[in-house]
Please model this.
Amino acid sequence: MSLPYASPAASALSAASAVHLSAPRYVLGELPAAHTTIDGLAERARTFGMPPRAELWGWGTVHRTAKALETLAAETARATLDGAGAAPEDVDCLILCSTRFPGGPRTHGAFVENVLAATGLGAAAFTGLTLGRCANLLAGIRTGQAYVASGMYRRVMVVTADRVTDEAVRMENFALFSDGAASCLISADPLGPDAYEIVAGAGAQDPAALDWSNEISSDLAREVNRQILEEAGMKTGDIQGVFHPNLYKPLVVLKERQAGFTREQLFLDNIPRVGHCFAADPLINLVDREAAGELRPRGHYLLASSVPGVRIGVLLRKLPAGDSTTATATDPDSATGSDSATGSDSVTGSDSVTGSDSESATDSARQADDSTRQGDH
Model:
């Protein structure tokens, strides 16, 4: 492997005023279904050499949508505005992220127009991100952070939205895909009751490994961790939680443990409950842990995503509600989206990879990872 190229960490941004991430929200496809409804799942599992053990891989529920991509994007963006207590006209810029924007150059203008109109953002500047695949959202958050820190924009809405367009590939050998969208506001001031300071961020990439047939690199993850922890003056154990993509449990456990994290720092519950919602996973997992009351005020939490050849991480510090400038009261369902995991909806207990299952999962992940085609991820 060639030496990874590391993008600048947060040091250049740290000299500027603090930047915050506020009101993370998400929506899932409105048609949840058991994994057993996926066409050809058993055949694809045999092709991938995966034993049919749903509890091992985290096969659970997938979420499909009949809605247009811009509808999903607008729904989550409006929820973020409500959660932040922000008016649409207060947003200067919209960053739209998607693995596949619908159509081509002839239709992209209408797509952006529809999102802007449905959210009331009007004439806000816009940027589109797609080449990062399932790291698009974190690339968008880091871009929004740079925009705000530089003074180019005051408030930036970051939205990611994706859906499966071919049911034949809803199952891949690294994840079961769900349709959905997620969003947040990036601004100098914290907005609303659920706000976070962006403490540090970093990215690392190996151009020679960008092809989708390559495996996820733990080396790149360790490099990103090094940059972030050095910038924040912290150790790996100081991070209370890691919000990673919802890939198959053995793959997540293997790769994140190789990156230096403990099993206790990971969050695997949403793998069977939500599935892999493309780039939205880290924000979805953050929202659900917050909804369950499992985030500590002033605790540090890492949003992280890896695709072949790329790793991006964003370290957040949770602010107490009183630190927000517009701590507006919000309806609990609106605050997390009706699909968020709370109470009995959370998937816990037997779905965790522990003990002998962990060893079996790791062996299976190593075998699967050798031949992984990371595809849309």
